[in-house]
Amino acid sequence: MQDSKYLIANERDALWGLTVSTVGMDMLQPGDPYPTRGHAGGYYFDVNKGRILDEYQMLYLMEGEGIFSSEHVKDQKIKAGDIFLLFPNEWHTYHPLHDSKWKSYWIGYEGRNMDDRVRYGFLSPEKPIYHVGYCPEVIQLYEAAMKAAKEEAAFSQQVLAGIVNNLIGVMYSKERNIILNKDRGKVDIINKAKMIIRDEVESRITIQEIAEQMGMGYSNFRKLFKEFTGVSPALYQQELKLQKAKELLSTTGISIKEIAYQLNFDSPDYFSSKFKNKVGCKPREYREQMGFTNNKHNATT
Description:
Layout: E1 2-6, H1 11-15, E2 19-28, E3 51-52, E4 56-70, E5 76-79, E6 82-86, E7 91-96, E8 102-110, H2 112-119, E9 129-131, H3 136-151, H4 156-180, H5 184-199, H6 207-213, H7 218-229, H8 233-251, H9 256-262, H10 268-279, H11 283-289, H12 295-298
Antiparallel strand pairs: 1-2, 2-8, 3-7, 4-5, 4-6, 4-7, 4-8, 6-9
Helix pairs in contact: 3-4, 8-11, 9-10
């Protein structure tokens, strides 16, 4: 059984950055022929020959087992709870195992938003399979996409683009957390270190001292911290200091010089430089934008 919808996007829809071409769901019993009939031209394929699409697709296998192959991966087993991605202009094929049930959702899309995620390495045809497990949130998003596609109300492409972005974010986050949570000891170390950095944002504690508290050498701690958070511990600490600086600038009359030393920057000039690099303006300008205009609040000494 198949339930699907194929959509048209106009040139203005494309300017949104992502458009959706197809949404659907397959449900098969063991031994049923695959692919199911009813696909639009260019989508139906022979599993032995495979196919090449000119768009991305994201498929969530809710039930069953199968085999997936592409130019970058060969004969990979896929199972319930897996999301697998198809990339434009790349050969691929997939099918359920003969003795397996099969229930899957799919959504096809294209646009610069997705191109950028591939360009910057968030997603890659070399890693097309993500395991998120049984995920009601993913199912609800696919169902919402099917509803929006069938209704095809005005500006439904923008609604569908938002659903795709949400799906990709949930997929990426779910799998990363599943991987990280397999080693709770390391997760606990990083969470404890983050808490210390936050609690000591106005102290002179160094990253080396925090590493020692965690019972680790600095190099190993830095590597682990960046692996789990995506940023170095020093940058994480600096970002928190700048957040605190914004709070002090917008809610207190403490001078910029005092804020710099309170947050343990080397000098007011160094603080001002880092603040401008991050926020886009100097501390004095930020304070003025927040509505503090009297001399006391604009003081630098």
